[in-house]
Amino acid sequence: MVPQKNGNRSEHGDGEGAGRGRRRRGAAAGAVLALAGVLTACGGGGGSSLPPAGGAPGAGKPSALTQAQVVAAAPVAPASAITAGSWMAKVRKRGTLLVGGTDSSAMFSQRNPVSGQLEGFDAGLSQMLAKYVTGKPSTKLSLVTVDTRETMLQNGTVDAVFATYTITPQRARKIAFAGPYYESGDAILVKAGNSTITEPADLNGRTVATEGNSTAALDLRKFAPKAKTLLFQEDGECVAAVKQGRADAYVLDQGILLGDVANDPALKVVGQPFTQEPYGIGLPKGDPEAKAFVNAWLKTIYADGEWARLWKATIGTKVAGSPPAPPTIGSADGS
Amino acid sequence: MREVVAHIGYLAGGLGTTLELSLLGFAGAVVLGTLLTVMRVGPVLPLRVVGTLYVEVFRNVPLLAFLVLFVFGLPDAGITYSLFTSEAVCLALYFAAYVCEAVRAGINAVPVGQAEAARAIGMTFGQSLALVILPQAFRTMVQPLANIFIGVVLSSSLGAAVGVSELIGRTQWLDLQYDEPVPTFLLATAGYVLVTLTVALLAGRLQKRMAVRR
């Protein structure tokens, strides 16, 4: 979305003899790699002390399954459900579900740098859907942003979007939403010592960080119209902004904030969620069968407990308590 | 679509921020870049080494990486600038490396006889650089510097990633509100093209007027 990097070098290398430039580049590459290392350490450091490989920190809950185990036990669709020429038939023929999502959202879809696997509730669900359609949990992730999600579904780059994607009537005009499969709501994260912010109205006149690709930025405008909003790309950056005093608070879905706080005792989440964010699975509008099919799959995994087990294996590793009841299919305006 | 057009004034404000950032960043880059060139062409070895290192380091790091380090790394060291200042400073520091190379090329374009003549009449290194070489060098550098300015304008869009509300930042905000990425980004693109074409046009004219006839 942001035009970057590529242009600079070639355009401004005017003054330099090509040969000399080439010779030096090798040495410089090392420096870049080193810097890149520092960067990932800094940028991610705020929010993403990464969850342990395989999911289960073990100690407290010995009976919890890992995400991979939950996916392995997930159901496969009966052949009769795959009607010829449908969205499902196309995916089954390819053998892989093309998923639009992210790899940097703690608890929902984050790449484990050690195993290379995507971990989280959204990632697990997409693997389960892939298994339901094709028989194996084979997914291929394309990174999407708020700017590209609808377009990539419309032009067929991806089959489905799993990206803490809030169902809204406006979005539903362009694409179809299956679900909702999860209910969240915006909450407020502040420094642990902060006692002046306890509810959305307290945010008026303060600087509030949020992710640029979330509906939280819009909710903020509604609930605290006098707040100054800072939009960052990632969760880790918003957390860093609060810790460094650049922002007084960080507003986003409660589940994600709880994940941040679980990693960091210097922060706390205050109050109860003040909005409702029903997450849906984005599907192309042109295939009405796809929505019915995915909704039927959701009902299946709600009923047989797979949904709750996945919650336990992902969100449940950071949030205390037992899994909530899954939301009712079709209950959100736009689903 | 209609909602987006209704917010054209909001986008224009973003374009204003983009221009402010670009002008500040470019001005800083020209000053620092020229200093770096003086270091690199000067007779003092340690200064030459520092100048060279600076250019090589900054040219080989993506600006976004540098920006994120500056915005989120420095506060950990106890230094916090506003986001706008951070980005302007980053653009200046980063593009100084490119300006340095452009100025150096410009100096190389000045015939060696000019420097020899300056020395022959007893000018010091500083005098010959300031009175003879740089004035001639800058005249050959109108186009390269204009290219760098365009680079600064386009790169300022990276500020959106660190919370600066410039043109792309505001475009994303509108997009968030109305889910209309195509018209919003088309408008933003038009804004950038407007600025860059104007710069290219002005640079062309300026170059014709400034050219040293030899």
From TrEMBL, chain B:
<dbReference type="InterPro" id="IPR043429">
    <property type="entry name" value="ArtM/GltK/GlnP/TcyL/YhdX-like"/>
</dbReference>
<comment type="similarity">
    <text>Belongs to the binding-protein-dependent transport system permease family. HisMQ subfamily.</text>
</comment>
<keyword id="KW-1003">Cell membrane</keyword>
<dbReference type="GO" id="GO:0006865">
    <property type="term" value="P:amino acid transport"/>
</dbReference>
<keyword id="KW-1133">Transmembrane helix</keyword>
<keyword id="KW-0813">Transport</keyword>
<feature type="transmembrane region" description="Helical">
    <location>
        <begin position="145"/>
        <end position="164"/>
    </location>
</feature>
<protein>
    <submittedName>
        <fullName>Putative glutamate transport system permease</fullName>
    </submittedName>
</protein>
<feature type="transmembrane region" description="Helical">
    <location>
        <begin position="21"/>
        <end position="41"/>
    </location>
</feature>
<dbReference type="GO" id="GO:0022857">
    <property type="term" value="F:transmembrane transporter activity"/>
</dbReference>
<keyword id="KW-0472">Membrane</keyword>
<dbReference type="GO" id="GO:0043190">
    <property type="term" value="C:ATP-binding cassette (ABC) transporter complex"/>
</dbReference>
<feature type="transmembrane region" description="Helical">
    <location>
        <begin position="184"/>
        <end position="204"/>
    </location>
</feature>
<dbReference type="InterPro" id="IPR000515">
    <property type="entry name" value="MetI-like"/>
</dbReference>
<feature type="transmembrane region" description="Helical">
    <location>
        <begin position="61"/>
        <end position="84"/>
    </location>
</feature>
<keyword id="KW-0812">Transmembrane</keyword>
<dbReference type="InterPro" id="IPR035906">
    <property type="entry name" value="MetI-like_sf"/>
</dbReference>
<dbReference type="InterPro" id="IPR010065">
    <property type="entry name" value="AA_ABC_transptr_permease_3TM"/>
</dbReference>
<feature type="domain" description="ABC transmembrane type-1">
    <location>
        <begin position="15"/>
        <end position="203"/>
    </location>
</feature>
<keyword id="KW-0029">Amino-acid transport</keyword>
<dbReference type="Pfam" id="PF00528">
    <property type="entry name" value="BPD_transp_1"/>
</dbReference>
